[in-house]
């Protein structure tokens, strides 16, 4: 009898909820891994959330790693690859603490740690103050309740997975509010030569989410963006047509570019790359360099 599949995950409540959902579909046992991001949320790039999990994969300590797709860097470790993506839940950002962005008074303090969210908030409301706010979902909601800020921005997907949709005041939708690439999707990483783990991961796989994620990651890669970039990308597939919106902006919200494109669902990588090239021609590179 073969050993149970070992599924690596961070130890936060959200990460455990996500990995538990995966484990119910692919089988196996959870293995908690402490990442650099758990130890120091203020430092590093996206690899601070994924590096320790990748290390455990390389060492054979786990067979699959579960990631929030928005946290996965463009370059993966040697011999590793993304082998599945789960069905996407609502990718929107949400405002907690107010019934709408317009309802907040001038000078209101809105907490977020994401540069993309900062740029988008200031593009929509240049009279508010966007302040650095770190911590897991519960920590951020507690800081909001304690009055450290007037409102916070979180991913609806995380609140849904934690059964905390009661905290949502409003969804942030509109021209500039394009979610992060991969937001709302979980992705599974494995050793490329591990046939058993890859086959198991396919039990949680969704082809539509995979196509959208592929296009979004191609956009980010073409723009040369990382977690320090104010970039959003969101693709949708309907009736065989893959459509995509993208945002790139200055950190202070003073300038931004929003573009959209549609293409063949059979070549999502090409669609994301083409949209990225168009945005570079329109000046996205200069905005992101600020």
From TrEMBL:
The keyword Transferase applies. Residues 5-196 form the Porphobilinogen deaminase N-terminal domain. Pfam families: Porphobil_deam, Porphobil_deamC. InterPro entries: HemC (IPR000860), Porphobilin_deaminase_cofac_BS (IPR022419), Porphobilin_deaminase_N (IPR022417), Porphobilinogen_deaminase_C (IPR022418), Porphobilinogen_deaminase_C_sf (IPR036803). It catalyses: 4 porphobilinogen + H2O = hydroxymethylbilane + 4 NH4(+). It is an enzyme of class 2 (transferase). One of its GO terms (molecular function) is hydroxymethylbilane synthase activity. One of its GO terms (biological process) is heme biosynthetic process. One of its GO terms (cellular component) is cytoplasm. Tetrapolymerization of the monopyrrole PBG into the hydroxymethylbilane pre-uroporphyrinogen in several discrete steps. Monomer. This is Hydroxymethylbilane synthase. It comes from uncultured Solirubrobacteraceae bacterium.
């Amino acid at each position: 009898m073969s050993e149970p599949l070992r599924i690596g995950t961070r130890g936060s409540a959200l990460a455990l909820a996500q990995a538990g959902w995966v484990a119910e579909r692919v089988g196996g046992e959870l293995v908690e891994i402490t990442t650099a991001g758990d130890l120091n949320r203020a430092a590093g790039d996206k690899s601070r959330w994924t590096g320790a999990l990748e290390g455990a994969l390389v060492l054979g300590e786990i067979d699959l790693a579960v990631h929030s797709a928005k946290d996965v860097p463009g370059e993966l470790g040697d011999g590793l690859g993304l082998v599945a993506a789960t069905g996407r839940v609502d990718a929107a950002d949400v405002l907690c603490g107010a019934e709408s962005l317009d309802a907040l008074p001038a000078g209101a303090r809105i907490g977020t740690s994401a540069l993309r969210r900062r740029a988008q908030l200031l593009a929509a409301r240049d009279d508010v103050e966007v302040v650095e706010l770190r911590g897991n979902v519960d920590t951020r909601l507690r800081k909001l309740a304690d009055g450290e800020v007037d409102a916070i921005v979180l991913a609806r997907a995380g609140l849904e997975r934690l059964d905390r949709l009661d905290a949502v005041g409003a969804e942030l939708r509109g021209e500039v509010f394009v979610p992060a690439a991969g937001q709302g999707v979980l992705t599974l990483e494995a050793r490329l030569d591990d046939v058993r783990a890859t086959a198991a991961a396919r039990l949680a796989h969704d082809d539509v989410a995979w196509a959208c994620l592929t296009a979004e990651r191609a956009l980010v890669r073409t723009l040369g963006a990382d977690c320090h970039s104010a970039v959003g990308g969101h693709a949708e597939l309907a009736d065989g047509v893959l459509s995509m919106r993208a945002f790139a902006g200055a950190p202070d919200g003073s300038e931004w570019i929003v573009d959209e494109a549609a293409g063949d669902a059979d070549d999502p990588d090409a669609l994301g790359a083409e949209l990225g090239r168009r945005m570079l021609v329109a000046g996205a590179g200069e905005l992101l360099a600020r």
